[in-house]
């Protein structure tokens, strides 16, 4: 506050009066003093108040103010005249005293209020100016800097809509505006940001959103030229990814899981994070699930191939365990259909065999997942209808037809029921015919049986009972053939009972009258084979015995000629042929033995060697082998003796003779030892000089005098015994046997 204002306020304030001898302090002047002055004046007034006595002067029309020690008189209004108009408004009068208990509060306020005002002033000085509220700005009158600021604020949100708003805010400014270079730079950046956001959408798997965002890029921006190319690239990558995904799914459906995994890895190289991470992981998870399901399906197929009801039900249970998301669900459903058809076929087969209760039990085991419950119900009806049909009577067939007719046209097994009905209807007449034929065949005579056959021949083979009629006809025909051929077979057996050759031959002729295809033909052929064997043995066994006797006597040639009389087709032919081969071998061995003895007769080394070689041709299984071995040992001993005899004058020649002794003979090892001794004697080893270590002479220590120079003499050669010339054997005295340490001969 200025000094003039302060003086004016002081002049306008009421002056202090002496009424009641109490000083009056104007509050406005009190407030405008400093705290120190105010405190000093306050203390002074307190002292004056305590020392001055009270006055009797009172303010008219006002109650006297009681003064106490705890009150301070600040202001006392002047007396008013009685002539003042009562209706005149009185002025507000400050209280003349302040309670002592309010002094601390007033002091606190005097301290805190100025301090708070100061803090508020400092805060206002440092407070930033308020930011503009961009959404509420009236843009036609907004400045370019404000537009640029709000555009940057919107672009910082990094959304396509905000980036487009930012571009529209600043792009409306004229081209010659001073901020146009900065605006163009920002527009280029924001347009590329729009394309980058679209790329992020594409990488996140949002193709349609990415294309929509890219197409919103303003045409006048630099990024607009890349929009078409970028969209084509996205579509190409997306189409390729979908193609790879579909191909992988097809491979999984075909259970080619290794190829499916290889195909799925192509997603990693397409350049899209969504397909390379999310969809690739999705495919690998599905491949793993499909691999487990494939193993279950393979095991189920193995059980299906085994074919029994239990295996089929176990296979169906495995297929039900397939994952609902599995690509093999359709394949599993096909296998379920196969299982159901197989179970139904087994039930029908069981029903045809007459076990209708077991057939119903089998049909009820068809898996519920096959959705064949209605088929099973119809099959149960047909199975129960088969019960009276199995009685094979006209009444039973009519009852079966009535039950089968309960299956209406809208039922799944209607056609099957009609087949049964047609079969049973056709069987009614045939059953009646069969019943009459059986009655005709009951006496069992030939004429009766032929009459029954004629009756069933009226039933066509294509009729339901055609096969049954054929079976009955074959049975009755066999009974007729047995009746007709039994006397022939009995006569043949009676002839064969005599046991001689002629009787057996007559029995064979009699049994051969039973023709092929007749009922007793196989029985007759068995008897014929038996009788022929007995007849041939009686006829040819003496010939074989005579041949064996000749062979035992050593007359192998005549034995062979005798046995050759048994020709092929005779029961003893194989036995005789084996004997002939044995006798031919023994005859050949005998000839070799005789030839070896002839060769050994000259007594020369070569003759003995030839004889030994010839004798070794005798087979080891021959009974002449022991004799041959004795001769070979004898001839080898002769060879050894010839070699020893020749060694007295010709050792090399003796060695040659002993080398001819074959292995396995009694003198072979002795001959080899003798050959080794002779060879060592002929080729003695060259003696080697004995090694003698050099003798070291110990000389006494010599004083430091250079040693005399000595001439180095070559060491004399050791005295070696004279060596005999190699390959020159010592002279051998003639007519003197040669003895060696090895043999002692």
From TrEMBL:
<feature type="region of interest" description="Disordered">
    <location>
        <begin position="1"/>
        <end position="28"/>
    </location>
</feature>
<keyword id="KW-1133">Transmembrane helix</keyword>
<keyword id="KW-0472">Membrane</keyword>
<feature type="region of interest" description="Disordered">
    <location>
        <begin position="681"/>
        <end position="745"/>
    </location>
</feature>
<feature type="compositionally biased region" description="Low complexity">
    <location>
        <begin position="1"/>
        <end position="13"/>
    </location>
</feature>
<feature type="transmembrane region" description="Helical">
    <location>
        <begin position="98"/>
        <end position="126"/>
    </location>
</feature>
<feature type="compositionally biased region" description="Polar residues">
    <location>
        <begin position="14"/>
        <end position="24"/>
    </location>
</feature>
<feature type="compositionally biased region" description="Low complexity">
    <location>
        <begin position="693"/>
        <end position="702"/>
    </location>
</feature>
<protein>
    <recommendedName>
        <fullName>Chromosome segregation ATPase</fullName>
    </recommendedName>
</protein>
<keyword id="KW-0812">Transmembrane</keyword>
<feature type="compositionally biased region" description="Pro residues">
    <location>
        <begin position="703"/>
        <end position="732"/>
    </location>
</feature>
